[in-house]
Amino acid sequence: MEFIKTEIRSGAYYDSVVLMHLQRSLLELPGVLDAGVVMGTDANKEVLEQSALLVDEIKSAGADDLIIVVKGADEAQATSAISRVDELIAARRGGGIEQDYRAKTLDTAAKMNPAAQWVLISVPGRYAAGVAREALGLGKNVFLYSDNVSLDDELSLKKEAAEKGLLVMGPDCGTAIINGIGLGFANKVRRGAIGMVAASGTGLQQVALRIHQMGGGMTHAIGTGGRDLSEAVNAATLRQALNALDRDANTKVIVLLSKPPSPKVAADIIGAARKASKPVIVNFIGYAASMRKVDNVTFTTTFDETAQLAIQAEQNPEAETQELNVARFAEGQRYLRGLFSGGTLAYEAQLILRDYLPAVYSNAPLDKALSLQDPLVSHEHSIVDLGEDVFTVGRLHPMMDNDLRIRRLEKEARDPETAIILLDVVLGYGSHPNPASELAPAIAKARRAAEEAGRYLEVVALVAGTDEDPQNMGEQIRLLKEAGAIVEVSNDAAARRVGRLAQALTQRGVNPTAATNPSVALEALNQPLAAINVGLESFFEALTAQGAEVVHVDWKPAAGGNEKMMDILARMKSKK
Amino acid sequence: MDIEKANDTAIDRMMESRPMLIGMGVARDVIPGMSDDLLMHAGPPITWARASGPMRGAITGALIYEGKAKDMTEAQALVESGKIKLEPCHHHHAVGPMAGVTSPSMWVYIVENKTHGNRTFSNVNEGYGKVLRYGAYSEDVQERLHWLNDTMAPVLAKAIELSGGLDMRALIAEALHMGDEGHNRNKAGSFMYTAKLAPFVAQAAPNSDLAAQIIKSLGDNALSVLNPVMAACKAMAETAHDIEGSTIVSVMARNGTDFGMRVSGLGDRWFTAPVATPQGLYFPGFSEADASGDIGDSTITETAGIGGFAMATAPAIVTFVSGKPKDAINATLEMYEITHGEHKYFTVPPLDFRGTPTGIDIRKVVETGITPRVNTGIAHKDAGVGQIGAGLVRPPFEMFQEAFMAYAEKYGFA
Description:
The complex is a heterodimer of chains A (576) and B (414).
Chain A: E1 3-10, H1 16-27, E2 32-39, H2 42-50, H3 56-59, E3 65-72, H4 75-82, H5 85-92, H6 106-112, E4 118-121, H7 125-137, E5 141-144, H8 151-164, E6 168-169, E7 175-178, E8 181-184, E9 191-199, H9 201-213, E10 218-223, H10 236-247, E11 253-258, H11 263-274, E12 280-284, E13 293-294, E14 297-299, H12 303-315, E15 335-340, H13 343-353, E16 361-362, E17 382-385, H14 389-392, H15 403-414, E18 418-426, H16 435-452, E19 458-464, H17 473-482, E20 486-488, H18 491-506, H19 512-516, H20 523-526, E21 530-534, H21 537-545, E22 549-553, H22 563-574
Parallel strand pairs in A: 4-5, 4-21, 5-6, 9-10, 9-11, 11-12, 12-14, 15-17, 15-18, 16-17, 18-19, 19-20, 21-22
Antiparallel strand pairs in A: 1-3, 2-3, 7-8, 13-14
Helix pairs in contact in A: 1-5, 7-8, 9-12, 13-18, 15-16, 16-17
Chain B: H1 3-16, E1 19-26, H2 27-30, E2 38-41, H3 53-65, H4 72-80, E3 85-88, E4 94-95, E5 107-113, E6 119-122, H5 139-163, E7 166-167, H6 168-176, H7 187-204, H8 208-220, H9 226-237, E8 249-255, E9 258-263, E10 271-274, E11 279-282, E12 295-296, H10 300-303, H11 325-336, E13 339-348, E14 354-360, H12 362-368, E15 374-379, E16 387-393, H13 397-410
Parallel strand pairs in B: 2-3, 4-6
Antiparallel strand pairs in B: 1-5, 1-7, 5-6, 8-9, 8-12, 9-10, 11-16, 13-14, 15-16
Helix pairs in contact in B: 3-4, 5-7, 6-7, 7-8, 12-13
């Protein structure tokens, strides 16, 4: 039989909403047909009356009294329900996980995490470019995991990024390590001094983890997306990343990795790598390098070898690097002048210099088109063989007589276009007994004269001899160094050294893209990683687990995926 | 044309508005365009045929109050014959909660915007339970209406004048710091309102008994300030209307059948879509099955940056949004996703006094799919019953899509 059970609690105030909630909880209890939990105001009592719950016992309740009334299917159930009121009120308090606000848009996420330098995007491909564009608009670097992004979109995104000094890793970039934090799929790799740029996701992971296994570690591993080294994209991201790692003081060795690249782009990138101030290990799958090692660039063919050589290069960095200080040269100083006494040394130098300089003139050229019109007058980059007949008529060979070379040295040093002078100093039986005693003072004088004229003259001396030669090789080197010359003991090393420098001097100020586009801010790499994740929640969880400051966006396609409206929104934004 | 600038202008005008409650008057004397054959109602335009139960009940009640009809049949005949016209409150710078039906003889609050000079109006709040605005029109409802209008209003009008006017923006700002969000919870605001007017009611009333009755009526009704608050919000929001190129919503209102909206840069066109049924908590004996469709002009509060948008300030009513205080915070945080700015004067203590999300941008609604959150009372679907609960509702998304496309066409983005 239906039964109405009531209770009045005097002076117990609850907000009406809490009470309405309590009432709903009561209604959910078994055997409860109706329930009312209200403060005893007249208006509330009227409401109870409408539902036939205003029984006599509670009519006297006042505005400060809490009325609890339960209509049960029988007395037991009504009583049981009303006895649970306190429990139900208590259940409302505490308990339950309170969820932090989830941003719905990138804009909001950026406000929530203003330190974020990176936006990870893993939304379906057809929306990804739009999200990436928004991220670039907010001044964020992009890790673009999504695939199925069109080539046109990739080009326009990378162009915009370059103009803003931001990086776009991807599209289809599965992995990266920034400042010790793995993005996307990434192994936990030791921090270290090796930086990597890779157009290959699994390649990046394999090399990074082998470096770790071999005891090395990474600064950053920057992904570019698989198409970056195609002719169309022209390594837009790789160039930026290489430049950033070259400037990054924590990175001592750079690894460049790519799936089979466009040969043209690869050659261009190797040129850029050779200008880096650090050892660069290059593993471009399927790219046939003409030699194993050029300057600071070493070519490898397997991931293992890449990891191994990177670690080796990190362990003896001195041997690998040469600081190219072009700033100390005066503006007009551009050319290399080689003054050789050894004819085949001069030939080999010309051969090696082809790697660096488009044209080197000589009185003994490898290519007739590069003949010096007058062997006595240098033209642009020149290598002069002073042992040629034209110079030796009526005098001793320059290996024995330094006079002619010293005069030529003085002449070249006076030329305001001369930047570098390369000399060979050939030791051994038959040669001058102490060539440095004459050449060193001449070098010192020439350098001084240049300095007085406001120039800097680099003199590189190739000392060709053994420590058992009668001239005392150590003493010869000491004298030359004292005079300010840089000494090399192999013709290859000497030619490459001057070649790199001459190349850098020739290219001074002729790189318009580097001049107009800002470079990537190193803070993006070296500050504690803070990011916004748009898309796969697992990436958010992984970043959080690694201690990064991440905000996740509960992303949905704009305008519910209605393409017409998305287009209009984009048009409105572009008019901003 | 710069959309962002247009929207800056729109919300600056809205926020810099200074609505003052300056007095009261009889609708036919003070509301522009009011006439003896006109009833104003909440929401976009409506006909009898399409009107919901509570709207029909309120129209009937108002016509009985005016002495023009005895029952619903007569009321229906008057309206259907065109002898009595129906027009939205919003067409007359007015707003009314729930059915919002305001007839020529009813007293209304007058709010004047000291910044821009516009005047807005709202009727008198009847309290909870069986009331006209929820479609109840029985004899006791009539009696209450007569007391409010014939007895209380003239005294209250004089008291407001004696007070020199109430600064509604300041009152709302303070109430937000006292647990009100200005739409469903107006407890603190109503107490402040009562406290500020009580001395002047005492002065204005012909005798102390009446003064006591009026002060008690204001003080007992936790919604007594709702109507002046709504008129204040209308005074603020309407200054954001008609800004060339602006995508800011300047009106949201429901008539129980349709949800209607106006957009600043799209003139006086109403964008409408069928209303949803609010989700919420119900009074004893009622459930969602009894609920009327969403109704009332009180969404003007959300339009002006309070109400559901300021949910984070009102943890006491958080159960409307399903539970924990953090849900209230999240409710407000979500609204920042679709608003153009943050209010200069209405701030949220739990969010470190961040300004409330202000100025709904139809572009952002369409882009994110997030529709505004509206806190609301729930009316019974049948005329004559009254309020049966309170809860949360969201306007229909398609209304925003329609407005968005209209904007794109008008401004050459389509």
